[in-house]
Amino acid sequence: MNPRTLARITVALLSLSALMPVVVTAIVASTLLYPPPLDELPDPRPPGGSQLSRVYDVNGREIAIFREFDQRVPLEAGAVPEHLKQAVISMEDQSFYANSGVDFRGALRALIANVRGQEITQGGSTITQQYVKNAYVGTERTLERKLKEAVLARQLDRLVDKDEILFKYLDAVYLGGDAIGVGAASMSYFRKPVSDLTLSESALLAGLIPAPSDFEPRGSPEEAEERRVLVLDTMLDQGHITEAEHEEAVDQRLWLTTDGPAPRGSTLVYPTAKGPTEYPYFVDYVRRYLEAQYGQAVYAGGLEIHTTLDPRLQEIAERTVSEALAGTQPPIEMALVSVEPGSGFVQAMVGGRDFNATAGQVNLALGKCHQAPEEVRNVVDVAASCWSDDAISVEGGGSGRQPGSSWKPFVLAAALEQGMSDSTVYSAPSTYRIPKCVGDENCTINNYEGSAGGSASLRTATERSYNTVYAQVIQDVGIPEVGAMAKKLGISSAWVASPERHNLEYALGSQEVSPLDMASAFGVFAASGERFPATPVLWVNDANGDIVEDNRQRQPERVLPATVAYTVTDILKGVISGGTGTAADIGRPAAGKTGTAQEWRDAWFVGYTPTLSTAVWIGDKTKPTSLFNIKGVSRVTGGSIPAETWKVFMTQALEGVPPTDFEQPPPPPPPPLPPAPPPTVFVPPPAPATPSTVATTTTLPSFSPPTTQPRPTTTMIVPRNSGGGGRRTTTTRAAQTTTTTTPDDGGGGDTTSTIKPRNP
Q1: Final residue of a structural domain among 603, 636, 664
Q2: Residue 674 included in any domain
C-alpha cells in the first residue's frame, strides 16, 4: 500500500476514535431525553428476592438465619406521614417533584468514566433512579446497568405519578439491620406503625438511607444522632418545618431503651428482634461484616455463608467469660476474641456477659473505628462501618478501649525494625516527665504494672512493663512510625495517628482499640511477620450457588521481617515466664503482654501460641471507671484477672494440640564481600640506551628448557599474626621461591603481585 494512503487511513481512524466519546455521549443523551415509548414497565423484582440467607459454622452446621424483618411490613396508601416524605426528599432528592427522574450529570459522568476505562464510582441518583435500582436493575457498577437504570427511570417518571414513585421507594428502601422499607424500619427501631412516627423519628430514618451500616442507631448511636440533627437542619433550610418544630425535635435526643430509664421527650430506639442463635456475638459480627459488603442481600439474597466459627472454642470462650464475670455486676464487662494466626480466621468471639442485655445489643469485642475518608466513602454503595484500607472492618457499637501497655509490642516492633537492639539500655525512673511539656496535665508518666529504678534494657522494660522507658523509646522511634506499625499489623483505628493528635502517651496505649484488632495484630508476630486480615467468613455462595467470596486460599502480606517478629515474640515470652504476665503461664511456649490503662480503667491480656492468638479485656462498658476491689483484687491490672482468664481459655482450647515452639528464622546472609581489585602486573623499565652512532647487534646463545617437568605451583595463605603485616602469600615456581606481603587495612582487600621470572 502506498505510504501516503496508509498515513491518511491512520489519521482518519485516529480522528474517529477521538470523536467516539462525543458520538456515544450524543447517542446516550438522545436516548435519555427521548427514550422509546413503553406502554408499561416490566414487573419489578420481588422486594429483596424474599430469600433467606443461612449461616453455617466451620463444620457445616447451620447456626443462624438472616431474613427480612417479619417478612416485610407492607405500607398502606396514606399511611406515610408528610414529615417523613419531606425528610427523605430533603436529604436524597430536593428537586424530586421538578426533575424528570434522571440525574443527567451523573449519567454522563458514568459514561465518560467508562469510555476512559475508569471505574464508575460516583452516585448522585434521584429517588426515582434509586427505586429503579432496587426494584429492577440491581447494584452492579457497570455502564450497561447505569444506562438501563436511567432509561427505566425516565419511563417510570412518564408513566407513574410522583407520589406513587415516592411511596414505592419508601416501601423498598433498605434502612439497616433487617429492615427493608419504612414500615419494617418503624417497627424495628421504634415498635410502632409508620403512621405514628414523630418528626424526630422520621428524621432519624431519613438519615440512615445513604449508609445504613454507618448510621444504624443501635450500633452507632452518636453518628445516628448527628445525622438526625443534620436532617432536621436541612428540613428547616428547605422550609419544610418551622423554627419551633425544629427546636422541639432537636431536643428529642436519641436514647437506647436498654440504657435504662430515658429522659423525658427522648427519641427511643429499641433493640433488634433477633431470631434465636446459640452464638449471638459471633453471628452479630458476621452480620455486620456482610452488611458492609452486600447490604440488603444479606437478608434477602439467598446467601449461604460458611463461617470460621469453631463451636468447641466458642463454647469454651463463653463459659470462660461467664466464670470470670461471676460475682461481678454490670456495667463491668469482659470480651474475648480468638484468631488463628496462619489464616486470620476468627474462631471464637464473646462481646459481653449477655448480648440481649447489653445496651443496644453492643458487641464489645468489635469496639469502634473511625469513619473512612470522604474520597473512599464515595466509592461504596453500603459503606463499611469502620474504615480499613485493606480489609473489611466493622464496629460493634462500643467506644473502643485503651489498651494500656498491651500497645507496647507495636512500639517494640517499630524500634527493632529501625535497628534498635533488645539490649539497648535506657534510664528507668519510677516517674518520667515529658521534655518540653507545657503545664502539669499529662506531662508526667508513671509505671502502673512494675516498679523501676536505675536503668533497664529494652527487653527488661518490656517484660516488666516500664512506662517510663517506653516514653523515651517512642521519642527515638517517632510517634507516626508507631502508628504506621500498628496500622500495618491490623489496628484499624491506628490510621488517625499523627503528631498533632497524640503525645508520648501514645506509646503507653492511649489509642482506643478493639479486642478483635488486638488478637489479629498479635497474630502477626505468631505468623513470623505475615498478616492475614481477620475475617469470620470462609466462603459465601449466592442464590445460584456461585461463590462470591472465598477466603480459604488467601495469600498473606509480609508486613514485618521474620527476624523482627521472632525477636518480639522472644521478648514477650519473657513477660509470661518472669514478667508481669506470669499468671498466664500455660505450660507450653507462649508469648503475650499485659495492659493496664490509666487509673486502672481497662485491663488486658493479649497473648498467643504458634496456632492461636487471643485477646481478653475487662472494664466498665459505660464510662471510664477504675477497676478497684473486683473479685478480691484491690486494683485490677492486665496481669491479674485478664491473664488468669486467658490462661483458662487457652489451656482448654489447646487441649489435644501438641505443644510447639515458635519457629526461629535463619539468620540473614552475610553481606557480600567487596570485589577484588585487578592484579598489579610488574613490568621492569627498559634499560637505558647506550649512546652510539652505530647500531650494535648482540647475539645471545639460544635457550633450551630443562628436560625435567617443572614442580607444581602451590599457594598458601598464612593468617595475619598479632604483629600485623597483613596476609603473606608464598608462591613456589620451579626452584625459585618468591614471597610478597600485602597490607590488609580494610580499605580494599588483599592485593596480588605478579612477578615475572628471571632467566636462569
Answers
A1: 664
A2: no
- Residues 146 and 124: their CA atoms lie apart, in Å, by 12
- Do the Cβ atoms of 188 and 181 come closer than 8 Å? no
Give phi and psi for 30, each to the nearest 5: -65, -35
Q: In sequence order, what are the residues at sequence separation of 6 or more whose Cβ sits closer than 8 angstroms to the Cβ of residue 314?
A: 279, 282, 347, 348, 349
The C-alpha atoms of residue 642 and residue 430 are separated, in whole angstroms, by 24
Q: Classify strands 591-596 and 602-608 as parallel, antiparallel or unpaired.
A: antiparallel
Task: Give the pLDDT band (50/70/90) at residue 359.
Answer: very low
Does 141 share its domain with 258? no
Range of 209's domain? 179-276
- The 3-state secondary structure of 79-131 reads CCCHHHHHHHHHHHCCCCCCCCCCCHHHHHHHHHHHHCCCCCCCCCCCHHHHH
Whether residue 357 lies inside any domain: the answer is yes
Binning the chain into helix, strand and coil, the percentages to the nearest 5 are 40, 15, 45
Is pLDDT of 381 > 90? no
Beta-strand relationship, 254-256 and 332-339: unpaired
Give the model's pLDDT for residue 392. Answer: 55
- Helix 104-115 to helix 143-159 angle (10° resolution) is 160
The three-state secondary structure class of 309 is coil
- Partnered with residue 56 across adjacent β-strands are 62, 306
* Mean pLDDT of the 678-703 span: 60
CA distance 717 to 213: 74
Note the pLDDT of residue 196: 95
Q: What are phi and psi of 727, to 5 degrees?
A: -95, 145
Mean pLDDT for the stretch of residues 8-21: 48
CATH of the domain at 584: 3.40.710.10
Eight-class DSSP state of 134: I
Q: Domain count of the chain?
A: 3
> Are residues 636 and 490 part of one domain?
yes
Q: Flag whether 753 is in a domain.
A: no
Q: What is the pTM of this model?
A: 0.67
Cα gap 569→572, rounded to integer Å: 5
- Amino acid at position 469, single letter: V
pLDDT of residue 26: 44
Mean pLDDT for the stretch of residues 537-541:
97
Nearest to 574 by CA among 412, 339, 448: 412
- Say how far apart CA 454 and CA 535 lie, in whole Å: 45
Q: Please state whether 45 falls in left (phi above 0), alpha (psi between -120 and 50) or beta.
A: beta
Q: Answer with the residue of higher pLDDT: 282 or 139.
A: 282
pLDDT band per the 50, 70, 90 thresholds, residue 449:
low
| Among candidate residues 234, 163, 166, the one with its CA nearest the CA of residue 199 | 234
Q: Are strands 613-620 and 62-66 parallel, antiparallel or unpaired?
A: unpaired
The gap from C-alpha 603 to its chain's centroid, in whole angstroms, comes to: 23
Mean pLDDT, the chain, rounded, equals: 79
Cis bond before residue 666 (omega within 30° of 0):
no
Q: Mark whether 272 and 364 lie in a shared domain.
A: no
Q: Of 371, 256, 321, 325, give the one whose Cα is nearest residue 622.
A: 256
Dist. CA 239–CA 253, nearest whole Å: 22
Contact 101, 83 (CB under 8 A): no
